[in-house]
Structure to design on (279 residues):
């Protein structure tokens, strides 16, 4: 495949998931409405302004990565729990999965002059563990909060790179810029080779990176410390569970005397036993 599979916002989730499973990536255009993008941009602006640039080439010396979005930007809930994205996770993550959870949230702001990021796989965060090729442990998304163009650093993705092939097999020439209008999202697996583009314009490129991972793996962003419990208690239950306030598998994730983490978050009785309901 030379381009990226593309879909309209009303495309059936089954078709989007099939493209991600088959090619490792899909773009859904204008999935977030303009008013949501406006609210989110306003909420994020002061936090982005206060975020330092990266300290090395990979994180980007002209790039700011602003995390803890559920605590700082209330409108991010609508992206985190978007039914299309969650539907893709349900269909693409390893078929034997029991639960999946939120892996990280961050706004990625590429400033003018930002260099292209090295091509990589997101699941390398698990200490480069060699998961089997048919085990998809992670689904990643980047939402365009500004228009994404090749000139301003649109994420570069190598389609069909999510198989049992070394990432060093691919070069920049194999990557396709995920150009897309504001409100669109590019969805790809943790095995898919990709990297941020170079921003050769005078404007910032802002994307919202939200990733999901199997419930029995450690989260890249520590949600319990990034989002204070008093804030987490006010979030929708679906988002609380995605954050990790549910059992990841049998006996995985309980609190003290085998208490259910959701019960602890809600302040319920000390004797509440944990429950595990595979999705």
């Amino acid at each position: 495949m030379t381009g990226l599979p593309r879909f309209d916002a009303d495309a059936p989730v089954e078709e989007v998931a099939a493209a991600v499973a088959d090619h490792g990536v899909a773009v859904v255009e204008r999935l977030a409405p303009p008013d949501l993008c406006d609210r989110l941009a306003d909420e994020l602006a002061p936090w982005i302004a206060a975020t330092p640039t990266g300290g090395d080439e990979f994180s980007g010396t002209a790039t700011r990565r602003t995390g803890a979005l559920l605590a700082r930007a209330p409108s991010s809930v609508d992206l985190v729990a978007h039914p299309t994205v969650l539907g893709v996770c349900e269909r693409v993550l390893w078929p034997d999965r029991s639960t999946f959870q939120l892996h990280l949230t961050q706004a990625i702001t590429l400033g003018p002059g930002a260099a292209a990021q090295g091509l990589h796989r997101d699941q390398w965060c698990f200490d480069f563990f060699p998961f089997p090729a048919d085990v998809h442990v992670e689904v990643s998304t980047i939402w365009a909060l500004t228009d994404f163009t090749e000139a301003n650093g649109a994420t570069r993705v190598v389609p069909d790179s999510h198989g049992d092939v070394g990432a060093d097999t691919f070069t920049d020439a194999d990557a396709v810029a995920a150009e897309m209008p504001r409100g669109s999202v590019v969805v790809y697996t943790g095995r898919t080779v990709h990297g941020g583009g170079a921003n050769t314009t005078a404007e910032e490129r802002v994307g919202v990176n939200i990733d999901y991972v199997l419930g029995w793996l450690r989260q890249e962003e520590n949600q319990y410390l990034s989002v204070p419990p008093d804030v987490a208690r006010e979030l929708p239950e679906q988002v609380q569970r995605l954050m990790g306030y549910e059992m990841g598998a049998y006996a995985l994730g309980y609190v003290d005397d085998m208490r259910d983490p959701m019960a602890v978050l809600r302040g319920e009785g000390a004797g509440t036993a944990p429950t595990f309901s595979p999705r």
Summary: The mean pLDDT is 95.
